[in-house]
């Protein structure tokens, strides 16, 4: 029981690191995108991650050379890399039609699609606690982004619909990648799988990238690009590792706090560099939604324990005792 609790804690911590890294990433990308196109940035991120994971696997003598002898697994790796690459491309295209804030809200469909897919295709359990937590989390997200629903004066209905459909495609491809990643953990470690996906994705983006543009970056932009590259390595590494300790549904629920972290980091950045960053100003409904998202994420990730029969009975007994004492 103690070992299971430790594994859950490790998985939750790794998933939170992923959420934090993804929450910071848009702020760094915003500055680099002024000097380098998104495809080149993405290529550098994948190539950087592939190189350093390869070094790690080489020192540990764990390069997955036997993959070439398993055509079926190679096909799944190729598909996973394609799905992840499509996720990046579709996300970028959607930004031509909808604002970044709206995109950040809509991409939250991805963890929920991963949750549904894990239950349907991988037969993972979906307990009462997870059901309650998911409902609270979805309600919180809707409230948190209420300003986006109300104020769409700068977006035409056609552009919003097209942007929504493209982002929905981005969410589907990410969920498909994540589910395939979870399935392949039965054959290889997370680092071995991610190395193959990084390498294949870098190859996909190379024809669209212009690596020579790195010579035009100043020192600040180079440091920000380096951070974006390291972000990919850390975020997807911790994400893949978290799937070894937690069911896909619980990981996806934890990642749902990412947009809240983005707003938090944007607020901090606005205080430190007001000329470069402008935080989203939230109304009361949005703050209530933020609290519900955090609560829903905790319930979905730990609902089996929080809403267990013993805890509910203990709470009933405590409330009954208090009422009698009063």
Q: Give the N-to-C terminal Cα separation.
A: 38 Å
Share in helix: over 70%
Mean pLDDT: 79
SSE order, one letter for each helix or strand: HHHHHHHHHHHHHH
How much strand content do the residues show?
Answer: under 5%
* Rg on CA atoms, Å: 21 Å
Structural class: mainly alpha
Structure summary, number of beta strands? 0
Number of helices: 14
- Tell the overall outline: globular
How would a textbook summarize the main sheet? Answer: none
How many domains? The number is: 1
Low-confidence stretches: none
Protein traits:
mainly alpha; 14 helices; single chain; 326 residues
SSE layout:
Elements: H1 2-32, H2 38-59, H3 71-94, H4 100-106, H5 109-121, H6 128-144, H7 146-150, H8 157-184, H9 190-205, H10 219-245, H11 248-255, H12 258-272, H13 284-306, H14 309-325
Descriptive report:
By secondary structure, the protein is mostly helical. The protein has one domain (2-325). It is built from 14 helices and no strands. The mean pLDDT is 79.
Briefly say what this structure is.
By secondary structure, the chain is mainly alpha-helical. 78% of the residues lie in helices and 0% in strands.
């Amino acid at each position: 029981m103690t070992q299971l609790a430790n594994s859950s804690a490790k998985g939750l911590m790794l998933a939170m690191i992923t959420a934090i890294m993804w929450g910071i990433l848009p702020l760094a990308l915003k500055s680099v995108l002024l000097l380098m196109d998104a495809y080149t940035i993405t290529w550098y991120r994948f190539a950087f991650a592939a190189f350093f994971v390869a070094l790690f696997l080489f020192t540990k003598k764990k390069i997955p050379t036997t993959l070439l002898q398993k055509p079926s697994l190679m096909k799944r790796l190729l598909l996973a890399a394609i799905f992840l690459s499509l996720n990046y491309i579709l996300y970028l295209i959607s930004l031509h039609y909808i604002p970044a804030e709206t995109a950040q809200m809509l991409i939250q469909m991805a963890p929920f699609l991963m949750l549904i897919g894990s239950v349907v295709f991988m037969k993972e359990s979906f307990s009462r606690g997870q059901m309650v937590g998911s409902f609270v989390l979805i309600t919180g997200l809707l409230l948190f982004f209420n300003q986006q629903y109300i104020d769409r004066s700068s977006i035409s209905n056609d552009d919003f619909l097209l942007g929504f459909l493209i982002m929905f495609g981005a969410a589907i491809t990410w969920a498909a990648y994540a589910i395939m990643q979870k399935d392949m953990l039965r054959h290889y470690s997370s680092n071995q799988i991610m190395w193959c996906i990084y390498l294949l994705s870098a190859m996909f983006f190379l024809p669209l990238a212009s690596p020579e543009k790195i010579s035009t970056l100043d020192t600040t932009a180079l440091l920000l690009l380096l951070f974006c590259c390291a972000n990919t390595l850390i975020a997807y590494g911790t994400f893949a590792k978290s799937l070894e300790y937690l069911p896909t549904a619980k990981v996806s629920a934890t990642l749902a706090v990412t947009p809240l972290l983005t707003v938090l980091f944007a607020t901090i950045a606005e205080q430190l560099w007001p000329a470069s960053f402008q935080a989203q100003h939230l109304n009361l409904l949005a703050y209530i939604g933020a609290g519900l998202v955090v609560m829903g994420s905790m319930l979905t990730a730990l609902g089996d324990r929080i809403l267990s029969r013993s805890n509910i009975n203990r709470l009933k007994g405590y409330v009954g005792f208090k009422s009698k004492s009063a």
